[in-house]
Amino acid sequence: MLGAYLPILVLVVIAVAFGLGSVIFSTLIGPKKPSEVKLAPYECGCEPVGSARERFSVKFYLIAMLFILFDIEAVFLYPWAVLFKRLGVFGLMEMGVFIAILFVGYVYVWKKGALEWE
After folding, report:
1. What is the per-residue pLDDT across 50-67, written as a single tens digit (0 to 9) for each?
2. Distance CA 71, CA 67 (A)
3. What is the SS3 string spanning 71-104?
C-alpha cells in the first residue's frame, strides 16, 4: 500500500531539490555588485517619500477583515442557491438563520461606527 505513495514522495523530493538547488545555484553564480542605486527602495518609479515604518490606522485592518467576513458570506450563498430545490424548506430556514446572524453582525459593526471614515 505504501508503494502507491512512492510517486508523490518522488515528486516532493524533486520539487524540494529543485527549489533549494535554484536558490543555492543563483547565490553562488549570481553577480554581486551592490551599488547605491540597486540598494535603494523602488516604489512604482517614484522616489520613495517618508519612512517604510509608517503606522497605519487600525480602521484599514478592520475594514479589510469585515470585507473578508462579508465576502465569505457570498461563498456560502452560492452552493446553497445551486442546491436550493434539493434542500427544501429546511435549507431555506438554515440560510435564513445564517443571513440573520450576519445581519446582526452588520448592524453591530454599523452601530459601533466601524464603517465611519472620520
Report:
1. 776 778 788 888 888 888
2. 6
3. HHHHHHHHHHHHCHHHHHHHHHHHHHHHHHHHHH
